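Shipment paperwork, digital attachment
Item: protein structure file
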Amino acid sequence: MIASDRLGAPSALTARAVTAGMQLGAVDLLAAGHGSRDKGATGRLLAGVENVLHVTHTDEFPPSTENLASLIARLAPNYRWILAVHDSFGADLIPRVGGLLATSPVTQVSAIADAATLIRP
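Attachment content:
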């Protein structure tokens, strides 16, 4: 689960997405951007989050959607599902990750019934 934030903490939509993601198994949360450690600490408190990964930007790894998508693609072999909230951040990031993984993402999912049933509008 990729954390979308609001005012420096995981958004309410992220919390709801974590709850839905629990239908698929254990949920790890990726916190990136400015204050990623603080976002990760707050994200760790969300019900259902097992582990928190955080990305700290440096001069060699500046904050950008492309850099984050590349990192997620490198982490992808460790995961069966990659989830993000469908906000402007997630809508920009997930297609890039899909392109790097040569897969078509399923977007605008409103609920997860189980690993074989995703509900869309």
